[in-house]
Amino acid sequence: GADSVPPSSFVLCGPNSDSGLQAKPANFKGIEKFVVDSDILFPVIAECRVIKSPAEIEVLRYVARVSSDAHKQVMKKIRPGWHEYQGESEFLHHSYAVGGCRHVSYTCICGAGSNSAILHYGHAGSPNDRLIEVGDMCLFDMGANYGGYTSDITCSFPVNGKFSADQKLIYEAVLAARDAVCGSAKEGACWVEMHRLANRVMLEALKAGGLLQGEVEDMMAAGLNAIFQPHGLGHFLGLDVHDVGGYLAHCPERPAEPGVCRLRTARTLKAGMYLTIEPGCYFIAPLLEKAYADENLAKFLVREQIERFRNSGGVRIEDDVLITKTGIENFTL
After folding, report:
1. Taking every annotated instance into account, which residue ranges of this chain make up the domain Peptidase M24 (predicted)?
2. So what's the pLDDT on residue 3?
């Protein structure tokens, strides 16, 4: 009748807080006959994607296993004299031929030597084309995609299969940070505190190795952690490799402090969340120069020791983990 209320139509419309990209709302013939609501649906769907269903968990477990196996194949076969892209090619082949994963979740990052300090290397401007030399560290960040679900795994390793003393020092600093978070993350833990924990442990190891001096808490307060790890600890993973739900309206705001401000979420962890844990330590020339020029940072740096590492690149260890009520389940094998 004349007084009838028109039906409602809920459309998906809102920004991915990570990429800033907008979900394009649906449009169809006759939409003008509906009361269109573009506010309610997006945060509801985004929050549903944060907590993985049992079926999603099994797909994510599978694609992480395929990616882990492909990384192992690369590490077994690679040798000095290869180009970085040959490592990428080996990963792509194994993921598809053995795992049935036709696509990857992002452009493969295959940095060797100093290229391993370039956080998002491997794009068209730097297409994994460097010749890998004896003594290089490789940082390979690659993840297969299966049924639209992503993986995101990073392995760092010496191309000739044996760590030098300096390579071992940095690798073990990052490994200690990764282990500390894997031993502490669980439902109820604060992701911001997990980031701080990782950075604190890494700085302690660098101090023990003779690269830093002073109190680690003072280093953290000054923001020195962001010189060596200028990215967040990790991010949600799912249908997007940087999945939605990080900074929804009901979530904590992005922190302001150096390094921590790079976190893609500041939420308290819940069982069923699926995230990467990816601490790293890099020797990035512009950041080192910035630190040397800042008296609040320079006082912590043992410059003659740090300079040994200037062209060494970086190390990142990245695992894909499911949060449980009592800890984590690591899907990266």
Report:
1. 59-325
2. 60
Q: End-to-end CA distance of the chain, in Å?
A: 63
Give the CA dihedral 232, 234, 237, 243, nearest 10 degrees. -20
| 175/121 Cα distance (integer angstroms) | 22
What CATH class is the domain 48-330? alpha beta
Domain spans of the chain?
8-39, 48-330
Predicted TM-score of the model (pTM): 0.95
Quote the radius of gyration of the chain (alpha carbons, Å). 22
Give the model's pLDDT for residue 272. 99
Residue 185, phi then psi, degrees to nearest 5: -70, 130
Cα(96)–Cα(191) distance, integer angstroms:
34
DSSP state for residue 109 in the 8-state scheme = E
Per-residue burial over 207-246, b if 16 or more Cβ lie within 10 Å, else e, is bebebbeeebeebbebbbbbbbbebbbbbbbbebbbbbbb
